[in-house]
Write a structure and sequence with these properties.
The protein is α/β, with parallel strands linked by helices. It is built from three helices and 16 strands. Helix 1 runs antiparallel to helix 2.
């Protein structure tokens, strides 16, 4: 409670809501109900989710700090992918691994592959692809293909321009 600045009875109520609904109930609903409802429940969980997003039922979004997750329009999160906003090693290891709470941004048209992991503080660029099983410890630039553990940019992707409506009418 102290970490979020909550205290008293209202703080207890907020913590109960955080752990019962945001960290447990809404993710369970997203997992058990059809995949097309998953973005709705992720919004209830606190994540900022854009339009036309596909989030598989088995995706894990940080339940404690979901409000730090921003997912742009037309993003795809494949089965088993994980988006995490905090890392806490515990009291014994805190000397070596300090607590980290940082936002995660997945920009428009990005793709997060099967069982890929996005760690705290990472921005996945527009149109970027994080391949299956990769672990993104650092940000991925726009229109880049990243793979591995830790994920490294393998190559750039050529952005596709939107179709020109006037061009289609001229040919007709």
């Amino acid at each position: 409670m102290a970490q979020r600045g909550w205290s008293g009875f209202s703080g207890v109520v907020k913590v109960l809501y955080l752990y019962i609904f945001r960290a447990w109930f809404w993710p369970v609903c997203a997992e058990l109900l059809p995949s097309n409802l998953s973005p709705f429940f992720r919004r209830l969980q606190g994540a900022k989710v854009g339009k036309g997003v596909f989030i598989d039922r088995s995706v894990i979004l940080d339940g404690i700090h979901a409000e730090l997750i921003t997912i742009g329009d037309d993003v795809r999160l494949a089965p088993g992918s994980i988006v995490y906003c905090h890392a806490k090693a515990g009291n014994v290891l805190s000397e070596y691994l300090p607590d980290l709470v940082a936002p995660v941004v997945i920009k428009d048209h990005a793709f997060i592959g099967l069982n890929a992991i996005v760690m705290p503080g990472v921005t996945v660029g527009e149109g970027a692809v994080l391949t299956c099983g990769s672990v993104a410890l650092a940000s991925i630039p726009d229109y880049a293909l990243a793979a591995g553990n830790p994920a490294r940019v393998i190559r750039s992707l050529k952005p596709t321009p939107p179709p020109d409506a006037s061009l289609g009418n001229a040919q007709a």
